[in-house]
Fold this sequence. Notes:
Chain A is of the alpha/beta class. The first copy, chain A, contains 14 helices and 16 strands. Chain A has helices at 8-21, 27-43, 46-57, 65-80, 144-149, 172-191, 232-244, 295-314, 336-347, 374-382, 384-387, 405-411, 425-428, 441-461, and strands at 85-97, 103-108, 114-118, 120-122, 133-141, 158-161, 197-201, 227-230, 247-252, 256-270, 275-285, 321-328, 351-357, 365-371, 394-397, 415-420. In chain A, the strands form two sheets. Chain A has an eight-stranded mixed β-sheet with strand order 1-10-12-11-13-16-14-15, sandwiched between helices. An eight-stranded mixed β-sheet of chain A has the order 3-2-9-5-6-7-8-4, sandwiched between helices. In chain A, α2 (27-43) packs antiparallel against α14 (441-461). The first copy, chain A, is elongated. The first copy, chain A, starts with 7 loop residues before the first helix and ends with a helix. At the A-B interface, α1, α2, α10 and α14 of A face α1, α2, α10 and α14 of B.
Amino acid sequence: MMNRKVNQPLFLVACLFFAQHYTAQNSTHTATIKKIFDYTLTRGKAYDNLHYLCKNIGQRLSGSKAMYLAEAWGLQTMKNAKADNAYLQQCLVPVWQHKKDEKVSATWSGEKGGKLKIAAVALGNSEGTGGKTIQGTLVVVHNYEELEAKHNELAGKIILYNYPFDQTRINTFNGYRDAVTYRGSGASRAAKYGAAAVLIRSVSTAADNHPHTGSVRYNDSFPRIPAIAIGTMHADQLATLATKSEVTIKLKSTSTMLADAPAHNVIGEIKGSLYPEKIITVGGHLDSWDIGEGAHDDGAGIVQSIELINIFHAIGYTPKHTVRVVLFANEENGLRGGNKYADEAAAKNEIHIAAIESDAGGFSPRAFNGTMSEEQYMKFASWLPYLKPYGITDMGKGGGGADIGPLQQKFKTPIIGLSPDGQRYFDLHHCKTDVFEAVNKRELHLGAAAMAALVYLIDNEGL
Amino acid sequence: MMNRKVNQPLFLVACLFFAQHYTAQNSTHTATIKKIFDYTLTRGKAYDNLHYLCKNIGQRLSGSKAMYLAEAWGLQTMKNAKADNAYLQQCLVPVWQHKKDEKVSATWSGEKGGKLKIAAVALGNSEGTGGKTIQGTLVVVHNYEELEAKHNELAGKIILYNYPFDQTRINTFNGYRDAVTYRGSGASRAAKYGAAAVLIRSVSTAADNHPHTGSVRYNDSFPRIPAIAIGTMHADQLATLATKSEVTIKLKSTSTMLADAPAHNVIGEIKGSLYPEKIITVGGHLDSWDIGEGAHDDGAGIVQSIELINIFHAIGYTPKHTVRVVLFANEENGLRGGNKYADEAAAKNEIHIAAIESDAGGFSPRAFNGTMSEEQYMKFASWLPYLKPYGITDMGKGGGGADIGPLQQKFKTPIIGLSPDGQRYFDLHHCKTDVFEAVNKRELHLGAAAMAALVYLIDNEGL
C-alpha cells in the first residue's frame, strides 16, 4: 500500500501536459499529416484494391498460379498508382503441394462409443500420409512437459497437442508466440519418440471448429510425420473423450514439398527528390495461406503499402528520400522474399534509412513499434504528438516485421511495425474466415494513413 | 516552423517516464484489476448472455412484446449472477407502431427514364402516410443552407437530405453528431415550407443500401410529415438522377404513435459492505430499434454491466459502496428510463457517487470519458496507469451517457462513458447489420473488465 500525497494528481496532470505539449509541433508537418488522413479516409483506394485482390485472385500460396496472378496485379497496381518505377525482383520459393484432401476421424469404443469426423487442415510445409490411411491411438498432451513425461508411450501413436491460447494476454501476439511452438516444433518433438502423426489445436482465440494453418518446422534428425491442425472445440472434445475411452484416430493426406519455383518481390518506387539513393522501405507480404483470402494476412499490409504512393501523389508531396514499396514474396512458409531483398540491398550497396512493415492485420492502428538504437528511438518516440490525434497512442520498442527483419540483421536498419488493435486477429489468422468481409474500410485506411504519416516524418526529420 | 532544441526528445522521454510512473501504484489495486481481467477474458459470461439476448429475444423496441421478454431476461440474468437484490422500476414509454411496410420508389422520364425501388425504413417516432401512396417531385438538398435557399420550391415536394457523414472525423461520434441533425430535425424544417415528406441519407460511414433508423423529433408548430431513411448509395444515386431529370418519389407507410405503455428499468444490486447507502450506477439500455438485433446498441452495454456482478463474485470482491446495475428503458426514442431513474433517486434522497454507461458499442475499449468537477477529474485521470496495461490509453473529459445524463443534471453526479474504438460503429448503428455476429468476444469482455476495474477504483479511492 502506498501513501498517496495530496498533490500527486496535480503533478501527474502537469507531467501529462508537458509530455503532450512540450514538443512544439512543426505546423507544416501537422498540416501535411492532416492532408494525408483526410485524403485516405475520403478517397483512398486501399479498400477497393483489397476487394479486387481477395475476390478476383484470392488465396495465393507461394508457387501457386494465384501467386503469379497476384504478382502481376501488384505490379499493375503500382503502375496505376503512378510509381516512378515498378519492377519485379526474383527469388526462389518453396512449393508446398496441398490438395486439401486431408481426412481425420476419431472412433472410440465402450458403452458410449462413437465416431467423430474432424475438420482438419494440414500444416504448411508438412508431409502427408502419401494418400494412405494411417491409424493410431490418440495420446493427448497439453505441453512439452507432458510429452516428455509420456515419451515411452508415444511409438506409433497419434499425438494431439491441446495447448490453449492464453486469453489473459492483452496483447494477443504474446498469446500467439506462447502457443505457436507446438505448431512449429510439435511434430518433430513427437517424431523423436516414434509418434506416427500429430494433431495441433489451432493457435486461435476463437471457440469453433475452423482449423488454422501455419508453418511446421521439421527437425531433420527425425522423420517428417504428418502434422494437422484442428479447431479448438474439436481439440477439447478429443481431450475429454480420451480421458474416458481409448480413442483411435484415422488420418489420410497427401501434402508434400515440390521443387522450389521462381517468385518475385514486387517493388514500386517514388524517387527521392534530394536523396534518391537513400531508401525508406514500406511493405507487407504478397503470399498467403491457401485457406481464406489472406485479407488481413497480409492483403491489408500490401494494399496499405501501395496506398502510400497514391497518398503522396494525391496531396502533392514529393519525398526527399526514395520511398520503396515492397510486396514481399513467401513470408508465410520461407521468408525467401525478405531474405532476397536484404541480399540484393547488400549486393548493390543500397542505403536503407528505415523500413516499415504492416503484417498484423488491417485493424484500427494503435501503435508503431520499432527496433533501433536508443538515440533513434528517442526521435521516433518524440513524433507521438503528431500521430495521437489519429488514434496512435504509443511509439513502442521492439517491433518490426518478418520481411524487414533481414535488413535489420544485415545493416542495423531501423525497422518499425504497424501495431493495430489485435483483439480480433487470432480468431481468423491463417483461417478460412480471413476474408475481405472481415476488414473494415476505415480501420484499413487509418492504418495506411498512419504509415504514410510516419514515412513523411522520417523523410523530413531523419531517423 | 519551429527551432528544435537538441535535448528536446530527452526531455520528452523524461516527462513521459514521470507521467507514467510517478503515481506509485497501489499493489492491491494492481493485483485486483489483473484478477478482474483474467476472469473476464477466460470465464466471463457477457458474450454468452449477449448471444441469448440477440438470438432468443432479438430486437426490443420500447413497448413491444420483445421488450417485456428482454426485461424478464434481464431480471433473471441479474438473479443468475447472484445480485443481492434484483427488481423492476416502472416508467411509461412511448409506443411507436411500425409495421415495416414502407415502400419508396423513384421514377424519372426522359431519354434515360426509369424506375428505382429504394430500400427504406421509417425513422423512429415518425408518422407515415396512413397507408396511402403519396407522390411528389424530389428536391435534393445537402444541408439546411440549401433548404433555406430553396424554401419557395418545397411545397408538396419530397425532400432528400443528402448530407454525407464526414469521414475525416477520426472520432466517428463527432461525424455522427455533425450529421444527425438532418435525421432529428429535417422533417419539421421541411414541413415548415410545405414539404410532403422527407427522405434522409442514413447517418452511416458505410457505402451500401442499408437504411439506418433513429429518432425523429417533430416540432409541434408544423405538420408531422413522413420521414424515411434510405441507404447512402441510394441517396447518392437519387442526387445524381435529380441533376439530370425530374424525379418523382412515391411513398407509402403506416407508422404512427400509440398511447404510452408501462415499461421498466431492470435493476440488480450488490449491497455495499461499508456504505450501502452510497451508490455507483453502471448501465446501458435495454431497448433497441426494431431492425437488427441491437447487439452493439446496446446489448453489449447491458451484458457488460451485468457482468460486473459476475466478476465481483468470481474474484471474491465485496464492494464498499452499493454497485447498482441498471438496464435502462427506452433510451432510443424517449429516454424515459433514464429520466425515471433520476426522478426516483431524487424522491428517495439517494446518494449517487458516480455513474458509468456503456452505450458506444462492444468494441475494444480505448478510453473512459467523464463529466465531473476539475478536482474529481484529476483523481479520475490519475488512474490511467492502472488501466493502460489493458488498452485504455486515455481518461478524457466530457463523456457520460444519455441514460445517466439526468443524474448529472439533477445532482452533479460524476458521469463516465466507456469509449471503445468507434471506427466500425456507424457502419452498423441502428441498422439491420447490428447483430451478434458483429460483436467480438474479447473486445466485449475487455470492455466489461475495464468497467469493473473503474468501479473497483471508484469504490476504493472515491471520486
